[in-house]
Amino acid sequence: MASKLKKLVDDSKEGSGTELDLVDKGIVNILEIPGFASLKNLTKLVLAHNKISSVPPNIANFLNLEIIVLFNNIIEELPTTLSSLPKLKILNVGMNRLNSLPRGFGACPMLEVLDVTYNNLSENSLPANFFCLDTLRALYMGDNDFEHLPPEIGRLKNLQVLVLRENDLVELPKDMGELTRLRELHIQGNRLTVLPPEMGNLDLVGTKQVFKADGNPWVTPIADQFQVGISHVFDYIRSDTYKFLYGRHIAARADPPPKSVDKSKKISRIKK
Amino acid sequence: MSATAGPRRNLFNLQPLDATTPSPLFQRRRVAVGEETGHEANILHLEEDLSATMSLGNAVCQRCNDGFKMDEQIVNSSGLWHTYCFVCAQCFQPFPEGRFFEFEGRKYCEHDFCVLFAPSCGKCGEFISGRVIKAMNASWHPECFRCFCCAKILADEGFVKNQGRALCKDCNAMEKAKGLGKYFCFKCHSIIDGGHLKWKGEAYHPYHFNCHSCGIELKEDAREKDGELYCLRCHDKMGIPICGACRRPIEERVVHALGKTWHVEHFVCAKCEKPFLGTRHYEKKGLAYCEIHYHQLFGNICFVCNNIINGDVFSAFNKAWCVNHFACSICDKKMSQKTKFFEFDQKPVCKNCYDKFPGELKKRLKKAYDEAVKAGKI
Ligand SMILES: [Zn+2]
Ligand SMILES: [Zn+2]
Ligand SMILES: [Zn+2]
Ligand SMILES: [Zn+2]
Ligand SMILES: [Zn+2]
Ligand SMILES: [Zn+2]
Ligand SMILES: [Zn+2]
Ligand SMILES: [Zn+2]
């Protein structure tokens, strides 16, 4: 096994030495990849579908890293040093066992795409500075455990893609209305009953846009609009009638719908 | 024929200006001068005038009420005074050169009179003797009371109060025009209520001009060419290109694009409306776009490297990829247009990667897919 890996690393070195793809190689420990430390010029590191349980803090020594993919491993925690990578643009840590993101993570200076799909994250597991990531243009947080999206989401002004599919969201903050560059929003499979009228600011209707909202227990007037089409939903939430109903709905503080999905089978939950 | 120009001049409320108000100093001085003796008090010798003033033996000083000694010098000035009693009521000094000023029965030297009673000028701070302009809650030398804007002396023509400033009526009209967002005619000095005509940097009533070609009285849509003014009809006849955006003639540089002509500053990106100013533009369906917006709108920015795609474009899920970056979003395996891939949150996933998804996720994705098909969304 090790010799095979060594050959792959050597191949990479013979090439430009800037990209290393070790997908589905049974890797358990990044530090045991032979010759890994010598790949100082690495810009892309793809280690999807392995058995990696932790990321060494000295990953931060690879100052040229722009893309890191660790999809489908068993990582429970990321090192705080990650946010010091000066050129990191794309980080994919989807399908792991993350219960939190590291302290100070929001300091990543260049991060454009963050994929934390299919982990165990919630509003309580984000570092305080998370929403300082204003360079983000895509944020993938589907298959996690958010019940409330922090209102600071409105600070991610460059966001074009936001995926919140199949969380436990019971409401969305009015600050969503500030994400004016958003052209792709996935909120399907949550516990949402209403949309804040401020979301009427968003331009999510059209052939260049994506708005997925199925599988939510919408209040009847919204559900009715979804029947006729997304553009009707947005027209409706911009109306004064809706603003009035929304205000009353919020004031009534009804209990949110119960969780309907059993997530115990998720592989992000399984502990060995 | 009735005159039409009359009423325009009555737009202003001229403040009453009491130009004849004399200063108290002026008044007193006049009193003094009015007496035959001029400014100087008459000094008598008692013995000389004995015959003239029969009752002198009983006479008393106006100030101290004591009598006079024989052979004493006496001052005669509306009554008789000891010389040492004929002094300034303020400084108790004799009057220099005998000049004094009276106020409410007391006599003062010029200095103290000014200090106590003379008005001082609101501009230069000096005492005012002679004509006083009382205006704007202060007193002024006539030559110190001037228009705030043009410094014209206002003493004789009057003034208009405008936001705490004294203005001549022209300047006031101009300020008022500015305040109303209107222009002020450079020729007739009044507000232009309708449209104005710009001519050599100044605004005018259009009716002050006539077309250089046909002589018709001009309206606000008149145009300038080679230093002359023309009515719109004559101007158009001269074959001047019209801007495709503002529909007005183009007198400076002409941009030819999209089969039309444009003012340089009116040839703009259809999305951000910034003028191209000579930079490259991209055309699509009869509209022009800047580089950024062309690619943003027509999907030609690579989702991975975020750069504009110059060569082949791979598009899927409302996204685009450059040749180098069209790959499985998980394992980074390069894909071609023919490669079969799955959709996961609107990202491409190769079959290998999709097969590695846990069963429970695949089940959910399948269910969502089936429902979308059923609802006619796919
Ligand atoms: Zn003065
Ligand atoms: Zn003036
Ligand atoms: Zn005029
Ligand atoms: Zn003419
Ligand atoms: Zn124009
Ligand atoms: Zn533009
Ligand atoms: Zn690219
Ligand atoms: Zn793949």
UniProtKB/TrEMBL annotation, chain A:
Keyword tRNA processing tagged: no
GO cellular component terms attached to this protein's record: cytoplasm
Alphabetical list of InterPro entries matching this protein: Leu-rich_rpt, Leu-rich_rpt_4, Leu-rich_rpt_typical-subtyp, LRR_dom_sf, LRR_domain-containing, LRR_R13L4/SHOC2-like
Pfam families: LRR_14, LRR_4
SUPFAM superfamilies membership: L domain-like
Disease resistance R13L4/SHOC-2-like LRR domain sequence ranges: 108-203
Keyword entries, A-Z: Leucine-rich repeat, Repeat
Name the record gives this protein: Ras suppressor protein 1
Organism, scientific name: Biomphalaria pfeifferi
From TrEMBL, chain B:
Keyword tRNA-binding on entry: no
Pfam families named in the record: LIM
Subcellular location field: Cell junction
Cellular component, GO, one term: focal adhesion
Main subcellular location: other
Keywords of the record: Cell junction, LIM domain, Metal-binding, Repeat, Zinc
PANTHER family, sorted: LIM DOMAIN-CONTAINING PROTEIN
This protein's name: LIM domain-containing protein
Species annotation: Biomphalaria glabrata
